[in-house]
Automatic annotation (TrEMBL):
<dbReference type="InterPro" id="IPR038537">
    <property type="entry name" value="TatT_sf"/>
</dbReference>
<keyword id="KW-0732">Signal</keyword>
<protein>
    <recommendedName>
        <fullName>TRAP transporter TatT component family protein</fullName>
    </recommendedName>
</protein>
<feature type="signal peptide">
    <location>
        <begin position="1"/>
        <end position="17"/>
    </location>
</feature>
<dbReference type="InterPro" id="IPR031823">
    <property type="entry name" value="TatT"/>
</dbReference>
<dbReference type="Pfam" id="PF16811">
    <property type="entry name" value="TAtT"/>
</dbReference>
């Protein structure tokens, strides 16, 4: 029963974790164009323009990488971009699977270039895997975080394939290590990932909603309560789990009523408001 439930697990919520990282959708040390595009994407409230515009940059990166095949920064930039785009904008399941797989492969290639020990990462047994991840220090934390994000996106796009879903504990361990090194990375989104991971399994099957709540609240504090998607996810992945209608509606109404304009969260907050309205409309059917 647990196996079947996990194979059908709500990995769609994992996509919110990728979306919540839009402020760093493209990260490439020393690459001004990548930084500028990342800020433009995050500060836009026009989802269609972003959807139509990003593919040109994706093709540009592909072209550059053909002449620079061993540049980990380019690989990580592409991994972030493909994972985010596939999760946010792609609805065709096969196309999403291909793009998310490409993102995952790019991050693995970048990790291999940075450290030979990472070249066979997916083949390692769990105890070998955790030992290797424990050796990562602050110099490699950005790489590790991108690896975890793209891996999660890959699992989300392949949620019907147990051979992929079974790696969820490894993604969890990556995020736990990232937090141990720098809990504030990407405005607290490593905590946000762990909140989602701990909320995927129902309490009856061993889920830990209180631990999920702790990570969501930590992410919200680090983001200075400016990332509205966190409250939306709290409503869906915590309030609904513990069946608290009052808390559920309170959080969602706060998101909808919020008129603050936080530039770096403009895109994610636009998506959050749409999601909040949809959750409120479906509340009577759920509770």
């Amino acid at each position: 029963m647990q196996l079947n439930w996990l194979k059908k697990a709500a990995f769609s919520l994992m996509s919110l974790a990728v979306i919540s990282g839009c402020s760093t959708v493209i990260t490439s040390a020393g690459n001004n164009l990548a930084d500028q595009l990342g800020r433009a994407v995050a500060s836009s409230d026009d989802l269609e323009t972003v959807k139509d515009g990003i593919p040109a940059y994706m093709l540009l990166l592909e072209g550059i990488m053909q002449d620079d095949t061993e540049n980990p920064d380019l690989l990580l930039s592409s991994a972030n971009l493909y994972a985010a785009y596939a999760t946010i904008f792609v609805t065709d399941s096969e196309r999403q699977r291909r793009m998310a797989s490409k993102a995952h492969n790019y991050s693995l290639a970048a990790a291999c270039l940075e450290d030979d020990d990472f070249c066979n990462l997916k083949l390692l047994k769990y105890d070998q895997f955790t030992q290797l991840i424990d050796e990562v220090d602050e110099d490699e934390v950005d790489l590790l975080f991108t690896l975890g994000k793209s891996w999660a996106a890959h699992m989300q796009a392949s949620s019907d394939d147990w051979n992929q879903v079974v790696h969820l504990p490894k993604v969890q361990y990556i995020m736990e290590r990232v937090i141990a090194i720098d809990g504030t990375i990407d405005n607290g989104n490593a905590h946000y990932y762990l909140g989602i991971i701990h909320s995927l399994v129902p309490p009856a099957l061993g889920g830990k909603p209180q631990l999920a709540l702790k990570h969501f609240e930590e992410a919200d504090q680090i983001a200075n309560q400016q990332n509205l998607m966190i409250k939306v996810t709290l409503a869906e992945r915590y309030a609904r789990v513990i069946f608290d209608r009052d808390l559920h509606d309170k959080w969602l109404k706060e998101v909808i009523a919020n008129q603050d304009d936080f530039a770096q969260y403009r895109l994610i907050n636009t998506i959050a408001k749409e999601k909040a309205e949809a959750l409120l409309k479906s509340a009577d059917e759920f509770f």
